[in-house]
Amino acid sequence: MGKYIAKRMLHLVGILIALSFLTFLLMYLAPGDAATKKLNAQGIAVSEEVLEKVRADMGLDRPFLAQYGDWALKVLRGDLGESYKDGMSVSGKIRKALGYTVQLALGSMLICLLISLPLAILTAIKKDSLADHVIRFFSFIANSLPNFLISVLLMYWLCVKARLLPVVADRSFKGLLLPSLALSIPMIGRFLRQFRAEILEQIGQSYVSGAVSRGVKSRYILFRNILHNASITILTVVGLQIGTLFGGSVVIETIFRWPGLGKLAMDAITNRDYPVIQGFVLFTAVVYVLVNLLTDIAYHWIDPRVRPE
Amino acid sequence: MKTSKIISLLLAAVLLLSLAACGSKAAEPQAAPADSVPAAAPAENPAPAAPEAPAAPETPAAPKILKLAESFAYASLDAHKDWNGWYTSIYGLTETLFKVGNDLSVQPLLAEKAETGEDGRTWTITLNPKAAFSNGKALTAEMVVRNLQRIGEVNDRFPEVKDYVIAAVDEHTLTITTPEIYPTLLTDKLTNAAFGIMDLDSEDLDNAPVCTGPFKIKSFEPEGTVEVEKNAGYWNGDVRLDGVIFYYMNDDESKLMAMQSGEIDGYSSVTAAAKEIYSADPSSYVLTVIPATRLQFYVLNENRLSANIRKAVNLTVDNDYIASYLGGTVSPAVGPFGASAPYGQVTKPAVDVSAAKAAIEADGYALNADGYYEKDGKVLTVNISYYFARSLDTIALLMQEQFKAVGIKAELNGVEDADSTYRASGDYDIALYCMIADQAGDPYYCINALFRQNSQWALGGFKSDECEALIDELSSETDVNRRAELANRIVQMVIDDNAFGFVGLFNKTTVAVPGVVNIGENSPFDFYGVSADTDMK
Fold it and tell me: Which ipTM did the prediction report?
């Protein structure tokens, strides 16, 4: 296991180098630069001389490899640099946004699991019943709806019409509810279908019919055997989704004023704030690799027969 | 085996929790409204003018706290850095030496007057002796000098300030000497929100600057909510509100719904769709629409388009139709400045399809079977370059439609960033753009940025020695009336040459609940917000 983890960590280094180089290159080639975005932000243009000076101050006039090299050396020293937009430290910005993203990710995942898992079990057990058809129909709708539409509809019904929650959410638990719910709805639709398929597959296995014929209680079979065996798939789906959620959700965060990583990344891209974009890319790559690694380790933990490769 | 038991138990717990949650779901709607009702004013209520319920006998009067939404938020309140000053001004924290009135005139604020010396380079500024910071400290010329010098140091947009000689003469008088004659010092700099005055001896300029405005900072969340409270000792009169909360909300739907749920009292930059909704309920919402200073225009590339084709283009583009299509968010423009400004007195020919066709035919074109003009087997085609913001994409589509009706084929070239693409390369026939034309009540900035031979738009090919001479004169002319006259002549020359087309000036559209007044709704500038006169009744 130790060797496996070391190998994956080595892969991570390679991924980070490749990814950061590619991102830096794409930003370098993309039209627009941070100096113009910063100085002309409110639609008032500055002279070309001022722009050139600021470009030089920011180092944007230097060759690509020199810019990338400087950045990489700073990162090796543990310094992600400062935001071009406001001069704040990139690591500080990511740390702050991460706190909000983690809250949103965990909140939405909790809601998602609390709803999707029982419904998946219900639809699997009651396969082809009316309940199964109705739930699957709604899961299809939930999975198809874009996030912004779900957000606006939820806001309209829960905040404007029913007055259950505030539109202007603060950073409290109450403020977290609506964005978590909006983020979880498409996940519920997707998870429900995947979990249901896996549970159905397990139900069709001979060990289940064997247990039934031996008179084992159905509740015991469900919790002790079926869910246990389905947990690897559940864990895979949840692990991958956690990685995605930790990358932030731009739409949800913008609509609900939730200052997470998605909003941070989107603002950085809009402002060509290269240090923040690079920091974000590095961070999400690390999270993705680590979450996948943890998921692999968890497989082995759940079922020792599964050996990480 | 133990671990698998734990996993099973965890899954079971999730299942049980979810069942419990499902079971209690029906009870939620009844329980929650009690918590939310007091905070929200019903949107359907025909008279929501009383957000504070009548006080119970023993309850003191509720503080007057206004809640507004803002589309931008910055990480710092240091007015001198970046664009923060726009927001510290909107928040009622910082004030400048002079301000621009709603009629575009320069008016005294922290300074009583400004006079130029005989050389035209030295300005003598006299401060208002009553002006003071919210901590009670009097505003001195020495503090203003330090502020101005700091702006040159920390704001990349104003490096030239470092070349000014700024000195305090006495406690309330200072002089600013510029290297060249600089008649627009007041409009370019001293009314500019980035030149807001702060007490530089205050401890935390980024999070809690001490300023001279009618409000002082109560709480500040970087790039988030900002709360200000009444500056009880405000030097310039009584402040009517007890405080204001500014919520950072850059999503239009969220702002609309926050208004509908009664959680905010107003905001600016209302979209056309939201405006329609508010207009339908005048008893609940008060809309204020005024022409502002953000200009939508296009450049006609004289290196590619003949004088007749340019003329045809300008005779075809129907600004009135475009403004109406954009739902009243813009007003049709004649020139780059509002028609009410003394330097906005220009004319242009009315839309005339027949005259446009005649101009094209004068260049030897004839209509083909497809309805497009053609010469030597080549269809008359123009490229319209635009970027996806400020409704320029919609304008490009509308122009394409209007050109088709005349017989000009238009190809659209949408980019994400105009500054580094077509504006930098000059690779366009028609280039759409949007910018603030009137920064603070003077035409020079726009004229210099657009019509100068070495300007960023010079790639459009407009050249006129006469115009250049007039711009030179404008750059040093100090008489306001003469400046307006020069500006009008310059712009008229540009219009007559069909070098540019001025499509629309964005309206500033503000919505508020009845009773809320003076939140900057009557100023054409985006950097004015709450003031001592802001009130909610």
Answer: 0.81
